[in-house]
Amino acid sequence: MASTILLPLTHIQSFSHSQNFAKPLLLQRIPLSSSLSISNSHSKYVPAKAVSSYRGGTQAAIKQESIDTLTSESAKDNQTNPLSSKLVLVVGGTGGVGQLVVASLLRRNVKSRLLLRDPEKATTLFGEQDGELMQVYKGDTRRPEDLDPSIFEGVTHVICCTGTTAFPSKRWDADNTPEKVDWEGVRNLVSALPSSVKRVVLVSSIGVTKSNELPWSIMNLFGVLKYKKMGEDFLQRSGLPFTIIRPGRLTDGPYTSYDLNTLLKATAGQRRAVLIGQGDKLVGEASRIVVAEACIQVLDMEFTEGKIYEISSVEGEGPGTDAAKWEELFKGAQSQ
């Protein structure tokens, strides 16, 4: 008799605020030995440990010694970090910033729920995780029908790190353009979120208010800054509690070819010092590691609610994961 797993399959329908979202969660038993396709667009919960089964034996590519090291390190962290009451939905959790956000949440023992177009990537990057600590849902923010209410059940915080390239590239294939990702995707996500969410953190970009000025007008030739600003504006009008992080040109990573153990050891090189400003005045580069940490830090800073911050990183010693130092930086930006 074939082994089986349980995959909760949600009832999908087009999103509308006027519709009643109370629906039962359906369970479908799927034999592991059968051909299991996850390429359809319907949202479904995929247990993190089950994702590796989709590739048969190929998931052995994840180095076991890395997972063993992570387990040992996580056990030490868990002694000082009890399981958090937060449930953070990370959208774009396998991208350059998002994967670092997820790795840091796991390190902190904070429960995360990933909304991914390709759930297999979660296991490639993060290994097999306890389903209580990390959950993976299949869905695409560009498709409102994918954003079933069950995805957001119990979610307390949201970090949205989705994005694409500013100029036409292979990443634009399959309609992955700035308009679809930075505008329509953000709009669809924000529209689907319940009012109970305590904070939505959106990663945007410096220069969004200066898209008609040099040098920003060059970056905006294909509309990336315009569409990011439209996404920002929609979030601000939504009534949801928000914080917007606008990084400079992203550096360090993405670490998409590595595993979680590598992500946890990633450093920002010599550019560890952090500059935070407001009013879209900052220029320069920002380490993805610094941006990911900023997204997590603001979740616990009430005074950052409803605020927009620009962030860049420069040479020097930085705040690391020290909450007091980050609070000083964010408060310093507001006093400028």
Automatic annotation (TrEMBL):
<protein>
    <submittedName>
        <fullName>Sanguinarine reductase-like isoform X1</fullName>
    </submittedName>
</protein>
<feature type="domain" description="NAD(P)-binding">
    <location>
        <begin position="92"/>
        <end position="300"/>
    </location>
</feature>
<dbReference type="InterPro" id="IPR016040">
    <property type="entry name" value="NAD(P)-bd_dom"/>
</dbReference>
<dbReference type="Pfam" id="PF13460">
    <property type="entry name" value="NAD_binding_10"/>
</dbReference>
<dbReference type="InterPro" id="IPR036291">
    <property type="entry name" value="NAD(P)-bd_dom_sf"/>
</dbReference>
